[in-house]
Each structure stands twice: as structure tokens, then as C-alpha cells.
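User: Can you recover a sequence for this backbone? Please restate the input before giving your answer.

Assistant: Of course. Working from this structure:
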């Protein structure tokens, strides 16, 4: 038991790398292309989830010894994952390097353009030989006297004042201001809505995954092979859904994608609540109703997952994206813990389980509708440009 707890804790610490990945992508991508890139990254993750269960088709046949280790259908998945992680370490060391943040590259181009404009403005309107010498020198002397006297007035300290600052007080004040700014940022309306969407989406997803296996065994007689094939087909659908969202994100706003995904998820939950809680008809109709419900649920998942991650990266500060994405992943981790706990004891009482899931979906849909106007990238830059052009 101790080994299991230790391995799970170690895996949880390693899973924090996902936060740094999303923070790195946020700093290295433009806002208008971010949703498409996030969709591609999530599709790659889903491809891994699709291929992983497929390896059980031959890993369950292992029955040999590798030195002191016994390799069977219980230990072979762990040894196989260890080999893959070791391979990934060498791939990262050989092929990975940091890209410069997109803001810094754009800032460098902007500084070059501003410098060129300043050099053009410094060119005199009249040539030196066309302008009287005494007039030119008189104006220059006044400017030099003004430029020399002004810095002295600013640099000279007032009598009775001390210019020595306490570094400990400055450091503590900066820490307090940083903590206040972070707490205020995560209590904003749009951030709370997106974190709630993250929690409810993963809570419902893990609850359904916990429910599906015993339901298929009890109602349809699926075994280990049947469930593996079912999860493989579900993975294919989710991957296609991510690519659909990648294309759709370039046409419509992220908040519209989120709204569509929530509507699809609500429809899927209502369908399951009507047709799965009290089966009607024969085996064929029950299987058809089950397939339709799972299809609708998996169809809405990419819409909600990609849009809420993209929106969250836009409404939070860019400099603290690693920390912000860590908070988001922590909320999602809490949902993946509570979801199976909720569904595990209610597999024989689907009315309560699916009713709670539908209530959560309706709640986040109402929250999204009320906060729809705030679920967008802050327009501070555009406002600044408009004020400059107006002045």
C-alpha cells in the first residue's frame, strides 16, 4: 500500500509539467492562434490515451521474468511506461530548447520601429547652410542649459531626507503586493467561471468513465477486450473533435465555442438521464441509446476543454501563466478525485448520479450566459491605440 501511495504521489508531482507546458505555449503564441494550438496539443494527448489502452492487447499476454522482476499482465504496463519516460528524457535533452516569448520578439520589432521614427524626427527641417548660424547656436545653447539644469534639480535630494532604503521592507512589501494581486486576479468573475467549467467538465468526465465499465458489463456483457475497443473508438471521436475545434476556433470566438460545448454536454446528460436510467426495448435499442449518449458526451468535451483553457490563458496575467495554469490543473485534479468517488457508489442509482451531473452543467451554463460579455481578452491594448490615435 505504501508503494502505491508513493508512486501515485510521485506521478502527481510529475504531472505538474503540464502546467509549465501550457504556460510556455501561452507566452510563445499569439492570442488569435492560441486556441488552435491548444486543440492540437490536447489532440496529441488524446492520441496517447487512445494508443495506451491498445497496448493492453499484447501487454496482457506477457508472462516472463526480466532479471529479478516478474513481468505479467499486472506489472508489464508499469515497466513499459518506465521505458517510454526514459526515452522521453533523452528526446527532451537532445531536441528541446526555449523559444523567446512572443511579446519580447514583438517588443523588439516595435523598439526598432520607434528608434527609426525618432531618428527621422531628429533630422532638421532646414539644412545647416540654409539656416543662420547664430540663430541655430542660440537655440542649441538654451536647450543645453535647460537639459543640464533639469537633471540636477531632480537628482539633488531635499535636505533632511534619507536616500537609504531598507531592502527587507521593500522585499516584504513586494511580496504582499504580489499576493494581493494574485488573490484579486483569481477572484475575478471570468476567472471563477472558467475554473468552475474546468472542475465540472472533468468531474462529469471521470464520473462517466467510472460508470461506463460496470454498465457495459452488466447490460451488454462487455469484457476486457470489448471495453478496450470501446475506449479506442471513443478516443478516435475525441481526436476528431479536437481537430474540429481547431478549425472552428479560427472562425468564431472562444466563448462561442464554450457555449456550444456546454449545450452539447447538457443535451448528452439529458439523453442519458432519460434513456439509460430506465432501459426500454430490447438489446439493440439499449445499445443504440448508450452509443448516442456516449457520442454526444464525447462530442461536447473538446469544445469545452479547448475553449476554457484558451480563455483562461487570455484573462490571466501572461507573466504568471505557469502559476495560473497550475491553479487550473489543481482544480482539475480535485475534480478527477471527486468524480470517481461520486460515481463509484451510485452505479446502481443512475438517477441521482446523472441528476447531479445535469445540475452542475445547468449551473455552469447559466454562469457562462451571465458572464458572456467578460469572457474575452482584455482590450487594454486596443484602448491605448485608440486613445493615441484620437490624441
Amino acid at each position: 500500500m505504501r508503494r502505491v501511495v508513493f508512486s501515485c504521489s510521485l506521478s502527481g508531482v510529475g504531472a505538474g509539467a503540464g502546467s509549465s507546458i501550457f504556460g510556455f505555449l501561452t507566452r510563445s503564441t499569439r492570442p488569435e492562434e492560441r486556441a488552435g494550438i491548444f486543440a492540437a496539443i490536447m489532440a496529441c494527448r488524446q492520441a496517447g490515451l487512445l494508443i495506451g489502452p491498445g497496448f493492453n492487447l499484447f501487454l496482457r499476454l506477457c508472462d516472463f521474468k526480466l532479471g529479478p522482476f516478474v513481468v505479467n499482465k499486472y506489472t508489464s504496463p508499469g515497466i513499459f511506461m518506465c521505458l517510454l519516460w526514459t526515452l522521453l528524457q533523452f528526446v527532451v535533452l537532445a531536441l528541446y530548447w526555449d523559444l523567446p516569448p512572443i511579446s519580447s520578439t514583438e517588443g523588439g520589432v516595435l523598439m526598432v520601429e520607434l528608434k527609426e521614427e525618432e531618428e527621422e524626427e531628429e533630422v532638421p527641417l532646414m539644412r545647416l547652410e540654409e539656416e543662420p548660424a547664430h540663430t541655430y547656436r542660440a537655440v542649441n545653447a538654451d536647450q543645453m542649459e535647460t537639459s543640464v539644469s533639469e537633471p540636477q534639480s531632480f537628482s539633488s535630494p531635499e535636505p533632511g531626507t534619507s536616500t537609504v532604503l531598507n531592502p527587507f521592507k521593500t522585499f516584504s512589501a513586494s511580496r504582499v503586493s504580489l499576493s494581493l494581486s494574485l488573490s484579486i486576479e483569481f477572484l475575478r468573475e471570468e476567472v471563477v467561471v472558467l475554473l468552475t467549467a474546468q472542475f465540472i467538465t472533468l468531474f462529469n468526465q471521470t464520473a462517466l468513465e467510472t460508470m461506463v465499465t460496470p454498465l457495459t458489463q452488466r447490460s451488454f456483457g462487455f469484457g476486457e477486450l470489448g471495453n478496450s475497443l470501446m475506449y479506442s473508438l471513443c478516443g478516435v471521436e475525441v481526436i476528431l473533435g479536437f481537430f474540429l475545434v481547431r478549425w472552428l476556433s479560427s472562425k468564431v470566438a472562444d466563448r462561442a465555442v464554450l457555449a456550444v460545448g456546454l449545450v452539447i454536454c447538457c443535451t448528452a446528460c439529458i439523453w442519458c438521464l432519460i434513456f439509460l436510467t430506465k432501459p426500454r426495448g430490447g438489446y439493440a435499442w439499449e445499445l443504440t441509446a448508450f452509443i448516442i449518449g456516449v457520442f454526444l458526451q464525447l462530442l461536447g468535451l473538446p469544445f469545452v476543454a479547448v475553449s476554457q483553457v484558451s480563455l483562461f490563458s487570455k484573462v490571466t496575467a501572461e507573466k504568471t501563466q505557469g502559476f495560473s495554469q497550475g491553479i487550473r490543473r489543481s482544480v482539475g485534479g480535485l475534480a478527477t478525485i471527486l468524480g470517481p468517488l461520486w460515481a463509484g457508489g451510485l452505479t446502481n442509482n443512475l438517477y441521482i448520479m446523472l441528476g447531479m451531473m445535469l445540475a452542475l452543467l445547468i449551473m455552469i451554463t447559466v454562469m457562462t450566459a451571465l458572464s458572456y460579455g467578460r469572457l474575452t481578452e482584455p482590450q487594454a491594448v486596443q484602448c491605448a491605440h485608440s486613445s493615441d490615435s484620437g490624441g
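That completes the design. The CA atoms of residues 244 and 302 lie 9 Å apart.
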